[in-house]
């Protein structure tokens, strides 16, 4: 499938790998581990208050500013980015509906991540971590060949994976908050 047949493969293919592209750093592994711990913490029932919106939004802004510096548009980059963002949307919406939401005694909505919602969150995080680990431990030639064959630039992969995560968290947050409001009405 060729969306942009004028895409030039050579400039991207001949560049040396930048020295800062040495795989996931310890801090990135710790950040992903913190997200998994955040999911585990949500297994306990909690109030859907301002904090339940502000904390995830602050984390989303932090991750977005740290890892999204541009949105690549060459070749089929946008197709990959939109595709993975849609995967994040599906995971987030399903996770939002799988989250248990009920009205509490004090007139506030309560939410608890169950096995399905927690599993979907961990699946998304784990898939992104496994992909990053695999690319830097022998899977790089396969990804490079796939990218060249499908006109995807090297900068599209990190942007697509980060946007997948942000859309997943944002859509899950929106669905859970909307369900919390419906429960109280």
Q: Kindly report how far apart the N and C termini lie.
A: 48 Å
Overall outline: elongated
Strand percentage lies at 5-15%
Total number of beta strands: 3
The averaged pLDDT comes out at 84
Largest sheet: 3 strands, antiparallel
The number of domains is 1
Radius of gyration: 19 Å
Order of strands, widest sheet: 1-3-2
The quaternary structure here is: single chain
* Topology order in helix (H) and strand (E) letters: HHEHHEEHH
Q: Count of DSSP helices?
A: 6
The amount of helix comes to: 55-70%
As residue ranges, the low-confidence spans are: none
Structural class: mainly alpha
Features:
mainly alpha; three-stranded antiparallel beta sheet; 6 helices
Protein architecture, described:
There is one protein chain. This protein has 185 residues and is mainly alpha-helical. It has one domain. It contains six helices and three strands, in the order H-H-E-H-H-E-E-H-H. Strands 1-3-2 form a three-stranded antiparallel β-sheet. A hairpin with a 5-residue loop joins strand 2 and strand 3. The N and C termini lie far apart (48 Å). The relative contact order is 0.20. The mean pLDDT is 84.
